[in-house]
């Protein structure tokens, strides 16, 4: 089995998410494009996290190519995009295929034809699409910026009503998700302002499960997790879990954070990275979680920031108990 590059985000979907299905239902025109915007952290760009897309800093200015054709090693759909694919339908009845070839006669220089029938699985071949991912800087773009906003789109929009629309839509979504870590659906010719409105965090409740299930799920979002990551996560999970919260996780923006929700007006956001702080937010947490850490610190918002040093755990526990 071929090994593909790892980027630290979920790559593929077996079917469209409920969010994408819902978004598609709100679009009242036929022509759509698979596209999304993403906050790229400057530190991630410098570390080469987006090098496979040709994104890097040229001295102090962000360099983003107009388009790129993903390499086959980036993932399954990148490979299908360049090489095509053949699907074998083992769930369907076999069909009879006839094979013929010429074989040499025994005892002379002539040939004779041989025909053989075999029962085989049904197959369907999909040719290579050779699609490109188009890119555009919408905000930021300097090495001094904490983040830069980049729009990613799969070239060649889709038209509802086309015979292969559903299959093509899922293919486009997977190709974009695989290479960028984000995916979305927009009407064709959507203005930039509407794209910028989508830069926020979608928080989702994490399913109930064992401690190890939770840890494995969070670590799957970390690029090259180490044993130190696991140890920190175990300790911080145990600390928060003892206070009986509901855990949530970010799907963009604060995606490196996981949250512990103690009430509708009290949420604690944790992070695995050394040097980061815990953020405790109150009634405006859904709005505030859309902001960058820099904006949170400088904005004078009703947010408690607890650095991971000293008696931070005691400070956190007391704060939660006083505000529940």
How far the N terminus sits from the C terminus, by CA atoms, comes to 51 Å
How many beta-strand runs?
18
Estimate percent helicity.
25-40%
Instruction: List the domain count as a whole number.
Output: 3
> Any idea what the shape is?
elongated
Q: What is the string of helix and strand elements?
A: HEHEEEHEEEEEEEHEHEHHEEEEHHEH
Tell me what you see in this structure.
There is one protein chain. With about 325 residues, the protein is α+β, with helices and mostly antiparallel strands. It has three domains: about 20-85 and about 125-195, no CATH class; about 85-125, no CATH class; about 205-324, no CATH class. The chain contains ten helices and 18 strands. Strands 1, 4, 9, 10, 11 and 12 form a six-stranded antiparallel beta sheet that branches. Strand 2 and strand 3 (about 60-65) form a beta hairpin. The model has no long low-confidence stretch (mean pLDDT about 85).
Brief rundown of the structure:
The protein is α+β, with helices and mostly antiparallel strands. 28% of the residues lie in helices and 31% in strands.
Which short descriptors sum up this protein?
single chain; 6-stranded antiparallel β-sheet; elongated
SSE layout and pairing:
Elements: H1 18-26, E1 31-41, H2 42-47, E2 56-58, E3 61-63, E4 67-68, H3 76-83, E5 85-89, E6 95-104, E7 111-120, E8 122-126, E9 133-139, E10 147-154, E11 158-159, H4 165-180, E12 185-187, H5 192-196, E13 203-205, H6 211-219, H7 227-241, E14 246-250, E15 257-263, E16 266-271, E17 277-281, H8 285-288, H9 293-298, E18 303-307, H10 312-323
Antiparallel strand pairs: 1-10, 1-11, 1-12, 2-3, 4-9, 5-8, 6-7, 9-10, 13-14, 14-15, 15-16, 16-17, 17-18
């Amino acid at each position: 089995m071929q090994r593909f590059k790892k980027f630290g985000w979920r790559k593929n979907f077996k079917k469209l998410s409920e969010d994408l299905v819902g978004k598609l239902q709100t679009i009242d025109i036929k022509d759509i494009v698979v596209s999304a915007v993403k906050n790229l952290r400057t530190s991630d760009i410098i570390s080469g996290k987006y090098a496979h897309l040709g994104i890097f800093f040229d001295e102090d200015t962000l360099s983003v190519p107009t388009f790129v054709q993903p390499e086959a090693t980036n993932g399954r759909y990148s490979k299908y995009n360049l090489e095509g694919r053949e699907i074998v339908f083992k769930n369907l009845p076999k069909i009879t295929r006839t094979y013929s070839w010429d074989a040499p006669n025994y005892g002379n220089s002539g040939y004779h034809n041989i025909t053989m029938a075999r029962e085989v699985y049904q197959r369907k071949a999909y040719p290579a699409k050779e699609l490109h991912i188009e890119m555009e800087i919408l905000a930021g773009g300097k090495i001094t910026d904490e983040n830069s906003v980049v729009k990613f789109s799969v070239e060649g929009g889709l038209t509802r009503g086309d015979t292969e629309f559903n299959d093509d839509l899922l293919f486009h979504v997977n190709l974009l998700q695989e290479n960028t870590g984000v995916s979305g659906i927009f009407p064709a010719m959507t203005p930039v302002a509407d794209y910028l409105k989508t830069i926020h965090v979608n928080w989702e409740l994490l399913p109930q499960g064992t401690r190890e299930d939770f840890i494995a799920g969070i670590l799957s979002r970390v690029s090259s997790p180490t044993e130190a990551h696991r140890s920190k996560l175990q300790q911080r999970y145990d600390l928060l879990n003892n206070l009986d919260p509901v855990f949530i996780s970010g799907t963009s923006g604060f995606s490196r954070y996981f949250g512990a929700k103690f009430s509708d007006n009290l949420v604690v956001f944790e992070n695995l990275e050394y040097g980061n702080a815990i953020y405790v937010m109150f009634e405006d947490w859904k709005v505030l979680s859309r902001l960058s850490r820099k904006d949170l610190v400088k904005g004078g918002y009703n947010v408690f920031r607890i650095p991971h040093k000293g008696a931070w755990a005691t400070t956190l526990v007391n704060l939660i108990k006083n505000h529940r």
